[in-house]
Every structure is written in structure tokens, then in C-alpha cells.
Amino acid sequence: MNAFTIRDLENLSGIKAHTLRIWEQRYAFLRPKRTDTNIRLYSNDELKTILNISLLNRYGYKVSHINRMTELEIKEKIRTLSHAQALQERVINELIQLMIDLQMDEFESRIDDYIYAHGIEKAINQLIFPFLERIGILWLTNNINPAQEHLVSNLIRQKLIVGIEETVSLVQVNKTVLLFLPEGEHHEIGLLYMYYLLKTRGIKVLYIGANTPLKDIEYVTRLKQPDYLYTHLTSVSGNFNFEKFAQSIASRLPASTIIVSGRLTKTLKSSIPAGIKLKTSLQEVMEYIASLQQ
User: Fold this and answer.
1) N- to C-terminal Cα separation, the chain
2) How distant is the alpha carbon of residue 220 from its chain centre?
3) Are strands 203-212 and 173-182 parallel, antiparallel or unpaired?
4) What would the CATH number be for the domain defined by 167-292?
């Protein structure tokens, strides 16, 4: 069983920690255990409850009213939500719950159903990527069992690879992007997502992959002369020093423009070389891709 902090619940549900504390005082659906240092720890069932309550609350139901519902009534109300965004959020919540319970057959079935109904691109943009954004913080804080992470990551990785293989762009852009992850970074899904986005827009991709030594990046760059280098940082090993990496790659490849995205870019406070550009949100990434098509 996982034990989630109040910050985990905040990141997964979108409900502020302050509000969760108020709900805990007023209603019966939250009864977290506490550590010796008085830190709240929430169970799998409490996380699922908060995901359901936050969804109903976001689409018009008062918490005081939800508190009087049975679990079955809550599920029935969620099924009646007809707003497109609500339906999307409902499936994402279901994926989180299925991941927690390791119901991988059902997890894959939800994704396959969405692909069948909406196509692979919408499934990636509307379902898979938002799901990864929601649970990414759990990977960073080690509040998810490694078995859960590996099973989910490998399944989504397979879906992304299928999407990449099936993509045929009707336009071709005369630019090449080298995709890599530095040594110590093994989380490949964000980079594969970038591969998919670039390929759908007719941009040529050189994909080196995860945990790549700098000397290999330098070798391919000098041989193939890509227009840009791109990496996505999710959760590198503890001894990874971004400032040192940035200085090293900038000095060895001074003519290259290196783009860096991912959750870790939001925590970087040190100065970086001029040739390295940070993209701290999906919107910035999409704007960057659009600029390559011009």
C-alpha cells in the first residue's frame, strides 16, 4: 500500500493543501494517519476518494452535498458528467487509481478505448501526457512503488512507440533535432513524446535515447550536424549536476543550441550558458515546435 502526503494529494487532485485540511476538519471522508513527527499520510482509498470528490466539486457539486453521498452515488454522479473536459479528467483519474491498484489490464484497456475513440494523437495529448504530468511528482518524491512506475512506464512507452511508427507527416521541414537523455536520466517517456510531436510535424529526428554519455552526444552531433539538441529531464540520479552538465556540453559543442524541458527545469536556479534554452511548460514546448515549422 502506498502512503501519500498532503502535497501528493494536492498535486494529483488539484485541491490545495489548505483546503484539504479544512475538509479533514469538516467532513468524514478524510482520516489520515500521522507519523511520529505529525505528518499526515493518506491511504490509497483516501486518494481515490479525493480524486472523485475533486472532480465532482470542479463541475458544480458542493462538498457538503458530496459528503452525504455513498461511494456508489459518487461514482454514478461522475458517470453522468457530460462536459468534454470532465470526461477527460475522469479517465485520467481512473488511470491513477488503476495504477495504484496495479490493474494493468484495465489500465491498458482505458488507454486503448481512448485511442480507438479519439485517435492516437488526441490520446497522447489529452490523456497520456496529462496523466504523466499528474503522477510525475510521485516519481520525483519516491512516493510511488518502483513496480508501479515500471509497469506504467513500459506500457505507455509501447503506446508512444506505436504512435511514432504509425505517424506519417504530410509536410517535411528541413530541420533535424537530436533527442537524448544525459547520463543518470532513464525516464524516456517525455523524450518519446517529443519524438512523436516532432515527427507529426515533419521534422527529422535523431533519437539516441536514455542515459547517454556526453562523448556519444558530441560524436553524433559532429557527424550529423543537427540543427538542435533536445533533452527532457524528469528524475535524474542524485549525483547529476545540471550546471556542470550544461557547462560541459556548451563548451564541447559551442555552436549547438540545446533545448531542455521537463519538470526539473522549474527548479533550476543557477545560471546557464547562452546556448542552452529552457522550456518550463508544455505551452513553451509547443511554441518551440511551432517555431521550427516556420
Assistant:
1) 50
2) 28
3) parallel
4) 3.40.50.280
Query: Could you give the angle at which helices 6-13 and 129-140 cross, rounded to 10 degrees?
Result: 170
The ranges assigned to domains in the chain are 6-163, 167-292
Q: What is the rounded distance in angstroms from the CA atom of residue 205 to the CA atom of residue 152?
A: 25
Residue pair 197/167 in contact (Cβ under 8 Å)? The answer is no
Q: Any bridge partners for residue 231, and if so which?
A: 260
Q: Facing residues of 260 across strands?
A: 231, 278
User: Of 282, 292, 184, which Cα lies nearest the Cα of 233?
Assistant: 184
Spatial separation of the C-alpha atoms in residues 234 and 216, rounded to whole Å = 21
Report the CATH fold assignment for 6-163: Multidrug-efflux Transporter Regulator; Chain: A; Domain 2 (1.10.1660)
All residues at 6 or more sequence positions from 271 whose CB lies less than 8 Å from its CB, including other chains? 243
Q: Which residue type occupies 265? A: T
List, as one string, the DSSP characters of 112-129: HHHHHHH-HHHIIIIIIH
Q: Which residue type is seen at 40?
A: R
Give 16-71 pLDDT, tens digit per residue: 999 999 998 888 888 888 888 888 888 888 888 899 999 999 888 999 899 888 88
